[in-house]
Specification:
By secondary structure, the chain is α/β, with parallel strands linked by helices. It folds into two domains: 10-95 and 283-301, Rossmann fold (3-Layer(aba) Sandwich), CATH 3.40.50; 97-275, Rossmann fold, CATH 3.40.50.720. The protein is 29% helix and 18% strand. It is built from ten helices and twelve strands. It has helices spanning 24-30, 77-80, 96-114, 117-125, 149-160, 187-191, 213-216, 236-244, 266-269, 285-301; strands spanning 10-15, 35-38, 47-53, 68-71, 90-91, 141-145, 164-169, 178-182, 196-199, 223-227, 248-253, 273-275. The chain has a seven-stranded parallel beta sheet. A five-stranded parallel beta sheet has the order 2-1-3-4-5, with helices on one face. It binds glyoxylic acid.
C-alpha cells in the first residue's frame, strides 16, 4: 500500500551513542512544518525520515511509512550494522566542510612524521636537543587509501605540498600527479614504497580487519600509519606489535573499534601512537539538516538523492 506524501512529515533522530538533540532546531528550520522528534519519542507508524548515528537495531524495520534513512556522517556502516535494516533509500553526508576537516587532519599527521615532530616529542621528554636535516617533501612518499570525494581532496593537497603521492581504491582511478593502484592485488604494491600510509576507507566487508599483521608488515621499515577511516579496519594489537618490534615508526589514530577508546587501552600510553577522539571532522548541524531536508524533498519528488549509498557496495 502507498501512503500519501505528508507536507508535514515526522522526522525522527535516532542514536544509541549520541544525543542528537542539537539537530532538532536546524531540522525544523530546514524542513518547515516537519514534526521533528528524538527517538524513542515518536509513533513508529508516522515516521517518514530517520536521521541516524548508530540507530538501535531493529527499530527502523518497524516504520512502515519510512521513505528515507539519512546518516549524519560520511559513513553509513553504523546504520547498515542493523541486521533488520529495511530496504529504503540510504544517504550519507556529502560535505565540503567535512572533507576539509579530514584534509587538515591528514596534512598535520603527514607533516608530524615527515618533519620529525614525533621524534622531537619523544626527545622533549628527555630534554634532548638533537635535529636532523629535513628530507624534502619530494623525497617522501605518502599513500592515500580510499579515493572517494574525501580521499581525492587529501591526495591533491599532499601532491600540491610536493609529496610523492600514491593512491589506492577499489576500482581503478586516474588522478593527476598521483600514482594510482586498484583492487585487492594493488594494495601491497601501493603501500610497500610509502613512508606514511593514510587510510580514509569506508568500512565494508572487504575493508574490515584489512590492516592486520600480514598487510602492515608489508609497509617498509620505519613507515608510519594514519587511520581516519574506521577502527574496525585495523587490528590494533597487530599494529602495536609492529611498533614494539620497531618495524613501524608510529601511528596517528582517530578511529577505534570501541569508541571512546577505553582508558586502560595500551594505545593511549604507547609512545609511538597519537590517539585522537574521532575529531578529524564533524559535520555542521545546519549542513546535516539542509542536506537531509533537500533529500526528503527529492525523495518525495522522485529525484536523484544526494549521497545515496549503494547498499551492495557499502558506500
Ligand atoms: C565520521 O566518522 C563520519 O562518518 O562522518
Amino acid at each position: 500500500m502507498r501512503h500519501a506524501v505528508s507536507s508535514a512529515p515526522t522526522v525522527l533522530l535516532l542514536s544509541t551513542t549520541l544525543d542528537l538533540g542539537y539537530l532538532v532546531e536546524p531540522m525544523r528550520d530546514a524542513l518547515p512544518g516537519a514534526d521533528v522528534r528524538l527517538w524513542p519519542d515518536a509513533d513508529p507508524d508516522s515516521v517518514e525520515m530517520a536521521i541516524c548515528w548508530r540507530p538501535p537495531a531493529g527499530v527502523l524495520a518497524g516504520m512502515p511509512r519510512l521513505r528515507l534513512i539519512h546518516s549524519i556522517g560520511a559513513g553509513i556502516d553504523h546504520i547498515t550494522a542493523d541486521p533488520d535494516l529495511p530496504d529504503r533509500p540510504l544517504c550519507r553526508m556529502i560535505d565540503g566542510a567535512m572533507a576539509a576537516g579530514i584534509r587538515e587532519y591528514v596534512l598535520w599527521s603527514v607533516l608530524y612524521f615527515h618533519r620529525d615532530f614525533d621524534v622531537a616529542a619523544r626527545q622533549r621528554a628527555q630534554r634532548l636537543w638533537r635535529a636532523r636535516a629535513p628530507v624534502p617533501a619530494g623525497e617522501w612518499t605518502v599513500g592515500v587509501l580510499g579515493l572517494g570525494a574525501i580521499g581525492l581532496g587529501v591526495a591533491a593537497a599532499l601532491r600540491d605540498l610536493g609529496y610523492r603521492v600514491r593512491g589506492w581504491s577499489r576500482s581503478p582511478k586516474q588522478v593527476d600527479g598521483v600514482e594510482c593502484f586498484a583492487g585487492p592485488e594493488g594494495l601491497v604494491p601501493c603501500i610497500e614504497a610509502c613512508d606514511v600510509v593514510v587510510s580514509i576507507l569506508p568500512l565494508t566487508a572487504d575493508t574490515r580487519r584489512l590492516f592486520d599483521r600480514e598487510v602492515l608488515s608489508r609497509l617498509r621499515p620505519g613507515a608510519a600509519f594514519v587511520n581516519v577511516g574506521r577502527g574496525e579496519q585495523l587490528v590494533l594489537d597487530d599494529l602495536l606489535g609492529l611498533l614494539d618490534e620497531g618495524h613501524l615508526r608510529g601511528a596517528v589514530l582517530d578511529v577505534f573499534e570501541v569508541e571512546p577508546l577505553p582508558p586502560d587501552h595500551a594505545a593511549w600510553a604507547h609512545p609511538a601512537v597519537v590517539v585522537t577522539p574521532h575529531m578529524a571532522s564533524r559535520t555542521d548541524r545546519r549542513d546535516i539538516a539542509r542536506q537531509a531536508a533537500e533529500n526528503y524533498r527529492r525523495a518525495v519528488g522522485g529525484q536523484p538523492l544526494i549521497g545515496r549509498v549503494e547498499r551492495e557496495r557499502g558506500y
